[in-house]
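Q: I'm writing up a methods section and want to include an example of the input and output format. Could you take the sequence below and give the corresponding predicted structure tokens, formatted cleanly so I can copy it straight into the document?
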Amino acid sequence: MAVRVFEGSDHAAAYLRYRVAPDELIDRIMSYMQKKTPNQFNLAVDVGCGSGQGTILLAPYFTKVVGMDVSPAQLEMALANKKNPPNVSYRECPAEKLPSAGGEVDLVTAMTAAHWFDREKFLLEADRVLRPGGCLALLSYTMAMELEYGDVSNGTLNDICDEFYAALLPYRNPHIGKSSVKIYSDMFDSCSYPDKEWNECLRVKRILPLNGYFGMLETFSSYQKLLQKDPAEAERLSNDTRNKLMSAMKVSSPDTEVTVVVKYFYWLARKPL
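A: Here is the clean output for your methods example:
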């Protein structure tokens, strides 16, 4: 069964503000489509679109892009985004029951979302709406992001980050288990399309204030679960980890910019003609 998370308005607002938009992954998806089905870019559907950061990145390539999500709070944020191009719209629906007609979609994407779906039903639904030759692209990233700052040892910073991630592990939703990578690998294996490719790791770097990095971490469902259970402990964990990092970096401002390395994995597949 599918799992509903990211429902609160505050969480949705933080999601829009802090989550990294996967520009580099869009380039990979479009390169794959160009090789497989050039000049057929009429309709893209972004499933589990959240607040639409990835959805709007598809707009330059398609006549129409529709972001779909089950969360009204996330869609409210998406609709309020002033960066929405005129060819982007949003629909409220579950991933397993898309409002698209059979065989009309050129690209189905799910960006950091498919692990929450009923995976078997979603793959069947994606197959239903894709046209022959249409493409399916599923992507996500590992929880273990890395930090880089000046000449400070990456190992020192990342050991501190790893302590933070380890503290959140008991709060991961059992639906996604300990490793999202395995979920996507299993989905890849179960996809019947013969033309498909798996990509284990694409390192995407973003320069963010240290506070922005923590803003992103605090959107994780595991952190949100801890926050609900014990707000004081969640705040202590964030503050202690931030202070340890600042000490290692020898800085006094949490607005100091760091390089955040997000490790994406993804797979692409083309429906047979």
